[in-house]
Amino acid sequence: MHVLKSAAGLMAFVLVTGCTHSISLNPNIGPSANIARPVDLRVGVYIPVDVSQFVIDDRSDLDKYIFEIGESLELIITKSANRVFSQVSRLDAQPTGEVIEERALDLVMIPRVTAAMVTLNKEEGPFQDDARGNTAITVELMFYDTEMIQYTSVMASGIGITSERIGFFSRGQKEYAASVEDAIVNLSNDMVRQMYGNYDIRKKGEESE
Q1: Cα-Cα-Cα-Cα dihedral sign, residues 97, 101, 103, 106
Q2: What is the rounded distance in angstroms from the CA atom of residue 187 to the CA atom of residue 4?
Q3: Number of C-alpha atoms within 13 angstroms, CB side, residue 90?
Q4: Which residues pair with 115 in a beta bridge?
Q5: What is the pLDDT of residue 4?
Q6: Which of 12, 55, 149, 209 has its CA 20 to 30 A from that of 70?
Q7: 65 CB-side CA count, 13 A
Q8: Taking the chain, what is the end-to-end CA distance rounded to the nearest angstrom?
Q9: Residue 15: phi, psi to the nearest 5?
């Protein structure tokens, strides 16, 4: 009898509190924006832990969805830099003047997330529900010279708005992730455009030729 009461209590608790879903994103996300030709600069990219482990979350009904976007941010930042600059090196630690000199770098790029949010909701339909997501992410890319003095900075943003039918027997993880993935793709394309169009970066590239 006590076991049945305990089981019933646990079931009621789960129904009231819902579930938490940790969601990893598509690892093949990257920019599709094209440029005329890469800027002739050797750039080191250092991605801090607070970016590589960044998460955003929201609730839909009783369930909580946690999107582990840090790995995707790390990938698109590196891919976007590779598209814009002639040579890109990944740095595993906070850069120093010695590292910059050893690798003969022209600039060092360090990103930070300045804003990120996701809003989820479910719209009930006659046969299937729709998972609706609205995601916005803004990242600042800070560029430093060979003495680690800030040279310039670039702001890039991405927005994703989607509505996906929730499949049968699904809790909506994949469907809700769609807006997050769209925002990251749009963010990566904006990174390419903003870096390539930055006056200070283009000027430094011309000076190095």
Answers
A1: positive
A2: 51
A3: 10
A4: 138
A5: 38
A6: 149
A7: 29
A8: 82
A9: -65, -35
For residue 35, CA distances in Å to 49, 75, 139, 193 come to 30, 19, 20, 8
Confidence bin at 165 (pLDDT 50/70/90): confident
Give the helix/strand (H/E) hosting 113: strand 107-123
Query: What is the Cα–Cα distance from 107 to 100, expressed in whole angstroms?
Result: 8
Residue 43 is which amino acid? V
Does residue 10 carry a pLDDT above 80?
Answer: no
- Which residue type, as a one-letter code, is found at position 22? S
Strand, coil or helix: what is 64? strand
- The helix/strand/coil state of 147 is coil
Compute and round to an integer the Cα radius of gyration of the chain. 21
Measured CA to CA, the distance from residue 172 to residue 176 in angstroms comes to 6
* Alpha helices by DSSP H, the chain: 2-17, 49-52, 70-84, 97-102, 173-197, 199-208
> What are the b/e assignments for 169-204, b being 16+ CB within 10 Å?
eebbbebbbbbbbbbbbbbbbbbbbbbbebeebeeb
